[in-house]
Amino acid sequence: MTIWNKILIGLIFLMSLVFMYMAARTLKGHELWRSKAQSFERALENVEQQIDEAQHARSEGGVIAEMGIDQLRLELYKLLVDRGRAWYDTQPEQINAETGAARVNVPFPSEDNLPGRHGIAENTVLYAFEQAPVEAPLGEGGGRYLGEFKVTEVAEGLIGMEPAQRMSQRELDRLASSAGPWSLYEVMPIDGHDVLAEMDDQYLRTVLPENVAAQYVRDREPATPEQIEELGLPGQVVDAEGQPVGPGETGVYLRPLRDYEVLFRDYHRQAAEWGAEMAAALSDQQYAEAAREDAQRQLAFRQAQISQRENELDTETRQRDIVQRHRQALERKLAEIARAAGQILADNRTLASQIAQIQLTAQRRIDERTRRMARTEAAR
């Protein structure tokens, strides 16, 4: 065996030791990773069990003791179907008092705590209310319905919206005077028998109009149809199965539920109609007042004419009296002249008869003298 063979055998032995060490380390690593994998699998099983427990409801004796994510999601879906999304503490920044368009700051942080991601898209229809404390009496501290709006602009923490329906001047004034904060609803809040069921009766009488407070106070309370009719309350008295009870029977009074979206739209339509009628009435009133003023001017003008004519009549009357007196004087003078003329005519007739007699006598004398002269000439 040569030296090189011995060296090669030594190297092979050394490499065998190295490979044995590496194999031992590999086996040890496999064992470590196998134990780690088993522990992770057990942890994963625990997590999956926790996820399953969180995902599904926990029941005890056939009764749900704790709701899971599926049940909570279903309840949330029910709430969203009835109520939709809502944004509170929104602040109006710009309100156009002529058109009702507004820009509103919507402070709605997302899960990653970045502000401005409110989740409102363009063309979304929102119902705006003034935000008011729950304990505030009716008509105090805000709480008014401002209108139905359509989102026209979406920005970081800001939306622009304009009225979905044309607003009356009264609605525009109410909107412009609202300083906020506002509550924006994706779905018009719906009415239900459970909405104010936990409220105190005295509080309901404080915050609700008198004509409807009794409906909420007596809602879902035992009563007979005669008692409800005596109180003048709308609605019906039903039994445990929801069927109306007969006369004299005791059941549960259910007030009528209101569809606020339909009511507000109907009120808006009625307000528009009444506004148009009021505008027409005001226009007619203006025309009537203008006609009355014109009639008064015509009356004053006619009265002035009457006064002028009366003055002229007085003048004419005085002149007529003067003329009548002058005529009477002339008539008396004429009568005197007529009498004098008659006397003159009579005298003239007498004188004419005398003159005719004188002329006849003179004619006779002339004729006789002429005959004498003719005879005298003839005798010569």
Question: Could you please say which CATH topology of the domain at 76-185 applies here?
Answer: Elongation Factor Tu (Ef-tu), domain 3
Strand percentage lies at 15-25%
Task: Give the helix level as a range of percent.
Answer: 55-70%
**What is the alpha-carbon Rg in Å?**
61 Å
Q: Biggest β-sheet, characterized?
A: 6 strands, antiparallel, barrel
What CATH architecture of the domain at 76-185 would you give? Beta Barrel
Distance between the termini: 253 Å
CATH class descriptor name of the domain at 76-185: Mainly Beta
Low-confidence parts lasting 5 or more residues at pLDDT below 50?
A: none
The coarse overall form would be rod-shaped
Number of strands: 11
Helix count? 7
Descriptive account of the structure:
By secondary structure, this protein is an alpha+beta fold. Among the domains are: 76-185, Elongation Factor Tu (Ef-tu), domain 3 (Beta Barrel), CATH 2.40.30; 201-258, no CATH class. Helices cover 58% and strands 15% of the residues. It contains seven helices and eleven strands. The chain has helices at 3-55, 69-83, 169-176, 201-207, 210-218, 225-231, 260-379, and strands spanning 58-60, 63-66, 86-95, 102-105, 125-130, 145-155, 158-163, 182-185, 222-223, 236-238, 251-254. Strands 3-4-7-6-5-8 form a six-stranded antiparallel barrel. The protein has a three-stranded antiparallel sheet with strand order 9-11-10. A two-stranded antiparallel ribbon has the order 1-2. A hairpin with a 2-residue loop joins strand 6 and strand 7. Helix 4 (201-207) runs antiparallel to helix 5 (210-218). The longest helix is centred in the C-terminal third of the chain and has 120 residues, at 260-379. The protein is rod-shaped. The model has no long low-confidence stretch (mean pLDDT 82).
